[in-house]
TrEMBL record, chain A:
Source organism of this protein record: Plantactinospora mayteni
Annotated PANTHER family: ABC TRANSPORTER PERMEASE PROTEIN YPHD-RELATED-RELATED, AUTOINDUCER 2 IMPORT SYSTEM PERMEASE PROTEIN LSRC
InterPro entries: ABC_transp_permease
Assembly description: The complex is composed of two ATP-binding proteins (LsrA), two transmembrane proteins (LsrC and LsrD) and a solute-binding protein (LsrB).
Protein's UniProt name: Autoinducer 2 import system permease protein LsrC
Record lineage: Bacteria, Bacillati, Actinomycetota, Actinomycetes, Micromonosporales
Location (main, coarse): membrane
Automatic annotation (TrEMBL), chain B:
InterPro entries attached to this UniProt entry: AAA+_ATPase (IPR003593), ABC_carbohydrate_import_ATPase (IPR050107), ABC_transporter-like_ATP-bd (IPR003439), ABC_transporter-like_CS (IPR017871), P-loop_NTPase (IPR027417)
Protein name (database record): Multidrug ABC transporter ATP-binding protein
Keywords (A to Z) from UniProt: ATP-binding, Nucleotide-binding, Repeat, Transport
SUPFAM superfamilies reported in the protein's UniProt record: P-loop containing nucleoside triphosphate hydrolases (SSF52540)
GO molecular function, one term: ATP binding
Classification lineage: Bacteria, Bacillati, Actinomycetota, Actinomycetes, Micromonosporales
Organism: Plantactinospora mayteni
Length: 342, 510
């Protein structure tokens, strides 16, 4: 019977008496679902190698995840609004690469313009915003599918980076660009402060401000959001630009941490970004999930990666095992949430 | 047009109309949804807008609320031109609306839906306070739901009440209600009308759309009729008889709906739907009911009677705690829709917005979904056969559409509904369960729909109609009344309206 699929389950009976707070809403519980998983991973890590719990290792794990965390923050907000951005993984490379190419001499694979080095960071961030704005133009004005637009942009932007740099890695990095990825503030790397702060800002904005809640409304039902007076196109556009900005910032951190911009910087990251978001409870349908959940997703993946390294899994195998574990985590997240992740 | 017709702008000298649309035209591709139509709504009145399915009512609403730009024509509020389309806030200050299509966001909580985009000003949202305000608001409509529950967990009726409560809570002085009563039971409709009268006394103006003409007479002072995208008349309600109103809507002399005469079903006819000792905690208990082949059985009850839950259990959408459901002698696996359908059940769900149709597929594809195997050999769908079948359905059910190729998301609410019904009847089910089959369907189409159902019964289908519309139940051989989860009464054909209504209200002791 083909008619079957179109009949959805009726809503479950809701509890009799309306309560005002007191009990924790189910959604809130799902938010915390990954906390036990994180604790479990910490215990496993500690058993495998005592080094795991050393503050140097923990700092290291966190710092390595900061760039991913920023991309996940961007992607989570975009997904909640019911859109997609695959091009983030190219923005993280192109934005710093273009900014550097404009400031470094042609001898170091620059474009020869040799703008003042102080402009590198503003240009980098601006490039991120511009990419987001251009995605928004194609998606909102020309009504193209976000998926296909940003997939195209992923390829175009990567190609641009290779074209601009001649496929070379950029090494001659001005100190101002290196700073954020290397600085240590109050004993903790600046990149951790930055990512942490931005997550807190994001959680507050999406949880406690009207304009942030509009993102959920748009992802849940765009027509209804529009009817409620939300300027849906404008909000989505802003979100896409913020996404590009965060990706460019992540690019800066990565450049500083690694001391160079590789031609393939960010290449292949988008799978991990989506995995972290989905494991963290963000729905690809839009309208569901929280940034706190997404952050937990990032931490879970970071811990798994670290544990695999400490456990001495050979470098040749680590990618396959990491990918497999992500798939298992997705299955577990599906089972514990009881909802299809379509 | 008659002498009493007030065309736009003729209320000279008097106060400016609360809302006015003049010479509005709107096309969707080849479809003309409005052809230089207009409406003038005087301040403080409750103005009815009626017309057949696809007449253009909802299109006019979307223009009056600034969701769509008319191809030509203007909208004014209190005599001043309407704000720019992009300025949603300005529109919202002038007009609040319950749209025909649900604007509830299922992933957000009830409280947040009620205060969507006005959870707070520029500052932090006080969630606790928001839930408290939501609870207060819901209390006024006797909606017993937790404000912290996700809106997706509400029933169709509860969602509709949330929409109504939201629209009425803005403090807007002009409120549009597009078929607010289509999914409500009598008690909820009365509460709505009570609230509307209070607000009207406080100076609020309403535009009210409904296919239940008695409601127009009950709460409205003026009525505007649209037909085929055109304005037909605007007249005080008390100068217009029901017959004249139906005639204006349909363009010919109206006839009121009567029960369709059908031969009695012989005792020997096999039982196609047998429900024995069914119970589901919180919804209904000890339900026994039997429908024979060829029989039309009605099931009526208020929103809290459990009748919809019972229908959903029969269809496999819910699983009963006790008892069994048998279809044509088989007992399909409880709680499984595919099993119920395979056993020969046809089911028309209550929530057509969510469950009815595949929005981007054409009318033909949607209507023939369950019978694709009959449209050609070896699973091949012959397009000409499909079109022909769909064309027959379009005629039989009076579906107003560009043709079988039109995507169903371009249909008006009532016409989409007819496609769902056509589909439920398409594969000659042994037993057919329908929930509010004529909700949102215009007076004349109701007739053709109910005839189609009676026709199916004559072919040997046993039909259970779950509805609170007395008109839906007139051709039934017998009608069961549910009250607080039990069948309290059974009446056979020829029942008096009053008898049924009092039983539904639970006034009479069984
Ligand atoms: N988005 C759309 N795309 C194409 N056609 C449309 C669209 N919306 C409405 N129409 C067409 O415009 C006409 C008027 O539709 P409208 O929804 O205004 O009818 P209605 O009077 O509200 O009917 P109902 O009583 O069934 O709700 C219909 O013929 C419909 O098919
Ligand atoms: Mg309509």
């Amino acid at each position: 019977m083909t008619g079957t699929q179109t009949i959805a389950k009726p809503p479950a009976p809701t509890g009799g008496r309306p309560g005002l707070g007191g009990r924790i809403p189910l959604a809130r519980l799902r938010d915390l679902a990954l906390v036990p998983a994180i604790l479990l991973l910490v215990v496993v890590g500690a058993i495998i190698d005592p080094v795991f719990l050393s503050s140097a290792n923990i700092t290291n794990v966190l710092q390595q995840q900061t760039e991913l965390a920023l991309l996940v923050l961007a992607e989570a907000i975009i997904l909640i609004a019911g859109k997609f951005d695959l091009s983030l993984e190219s923005t993280i490379g192109l934005a710093p690469a273009l900014a550097l190419a404009l400031v470094i001499p042609a001898a170091s694979n620059g474009l020869g313009t040799e703008l003042p080095a102080g402009l590198a960071i503003p240009i980098c961030l601006l490039v991120g915003v511009a990419i987001g704005a251009f995605n928004g133009l194609l998606i909102l004005r020309f009504k193209l599918s976000a998926f296909i637009v940003t997939l195209g942009m992923l390829i175009v932007l990567r190609g641009l980076q290779i074209g601009i740099t001649g496929g070379q890695n950029l090494f001659d990095i001005p100190p101002s660009v290196l700073y954020l990825g290397n600085a240590v503030w109050f004993g903790v790397p600046a990149s951790i402060w930055i990512s942490g702060t931005l997550f807190v800002v994001g959680i507050a904005a999406l949880g406690f401000f009207r304009h942030g809640r509009a993102v959920y409304a748009i992802g849940g039902n765009t027509d209804a959001a529009r009817a409620a007076g939300i300027r849906t196109d404008r909000v989505v556009w802003i979100i896409l630009m913020v996404g590009g900005l965060l990706a460019a910032l992540a690019g800066l951190l990565m450049t500083g941490r690694l001391g160079s911009v590789a031609a393939a910087q960010g290449d292949g990251m988008i799978f991990t970004v989506f995995a972290a978001a989905v494991i963290g409870g963000i729905s690809l349908d839009g309208g569901k999930g929280t940034l706190f959940g997404a952050l937990c997703g990032v931490i879970v993946l970071g811990l798994i990666n670290n544990i695999l390294t400490l456990a001495g899994v050979s470098a040749q195998w680590i990618q396959a095992i990491y990918g497999a574990i992500i798939l298992i985590a997705l299955i577990l997240a599906r089972l514990t949430s009881g909802k299809a992740q379509d | 047009m008659t002498g009493q017709t007030q065309t736009a702008g003729t209320v000279a000298g008097a106060v400016a109309p609360a809302a006015e649309a003049r010479d509005i035209s709107k096309r969707y591709g080849a479809t003309v949804a409005l052809h230089s139509a207009g409406i003038t709504i005087a301040p403080g009145e409750t103005h009815a807008l009626v017309g057949r399915n696809g007449a253009g009512k909802s299109t006019l609403v979307s223009i009056l609320t600034g969701l769509q730009r008319p191809d030509s024509g203007q909208v004014r509020f209190d005599g001043t031109p309407a704000p720019a389309l992009a300025d949603r806030d300005a529109w919202r200050q002038r007009v609040a609306c319950v749209y025909q299509k649900s604007t509830i966001i299922p992933t957000l909580t009830v409280a947040e839906n009620l205060f969507l985009n006005r959870q707070a000003g520029r500052g932090l949202i006080d969630w606790r306070g928001l839930r408290r305000r939501a609870a207060d608001l819901l209390e006024g409509y006797a909606v017993a739901v937790d404000p912290a529950a996700p809106a997706g967990s509400l029933t169709v009726e509860q969602r509709q009440l949330v929409e109504i409560a939201r629209a009425l809570s803005f403090g807007a002085t002009f409120i549009i209600l597009d078929e607010p009563t289509a999914q409500l039971d009598a008690a909820a409709i009365e509460r709505l009308f009570g609230r509307m009268r209070e607000l009207q006394a406080a100076g609020v103006t309403f535009l009210f759309i409904s296919h239940h003409l008695q409601e127009v007479y009950e709460v409205c002072q003026t009525v505007t009729v649209l037909r085929d995208a055109r304005h037909i008349l605007t007249q005080p309600v008390d100068t217009l008889s029901r017959e004249a109103l139906v005639a204006a809507m349909t363009g010919d002399a109206g006839e009121t709906l009567a029960g369709i005469d059908r031969p009695a079903v012989p005792e020997s006819a096999p039982v196609v739907l047998d429900v024995a000792g069914l119970g589901l905690a919180g919804f209904y208990q000890d339900i026994d009911l039997r429908v024979r082949a060829g029989e039309l059985v009605g099931l009526i009850g208020s929103g809290s009677s459990g009748k919809v839950a019972l229908a959903e259990t029969i269809a496999g959408l819910r699983r009963a705690d006790t008892g069994t459901v048998s279809l044509a002698g088989n007992t399909p696996k409880p709680g499984s829709v595919p099993a119920a359908l395979a056993a020969g059940l046809g089911y028309l769900p209550q929530d057509r917005h969510r469950e009815g149709l595949v929005p981007l597929l054409s009318v033909a594809e949607n209507a023939t979904l369950p019978i694709t195997d009959r449209l050609g050999p070896a699973g091949i769908i012959a397009p000409t056969r499909q079109r022909a079948v769909a064309q027959r359905m379009i005629e039989a059910y009076d579906i107003k559409t560009d043709g079988p190729h039109q995507p169903v998301n371009g249909l008006s609410g009532g016409n989409a509904q007819k496609v769902v019904l056509a589909r439920a009847l398409a594969n000659d089910p042994k037993a057919l369960v329908m929930v509010s089959p004529t909700a949102g369907v215009d007076v004349r189409s109701k007739d053709s729909l109910l005839r189609a159902v009676a026709e199916a019964a004559a072919q040997g289908t046993g039909v259970l109609i779950v509805s609170d519309e007395l008109d839906d139940l007139r051709s039934c051989d017998r009608v069961l009344v549910m009250f607080h989860g039990r069948v309290v009464r059974e009446v056979s054909r020829g029942w008096a309206d009053a008898e049924l209504v009092t039983a539904v209200e639970g006034v009479e002791q069984p």
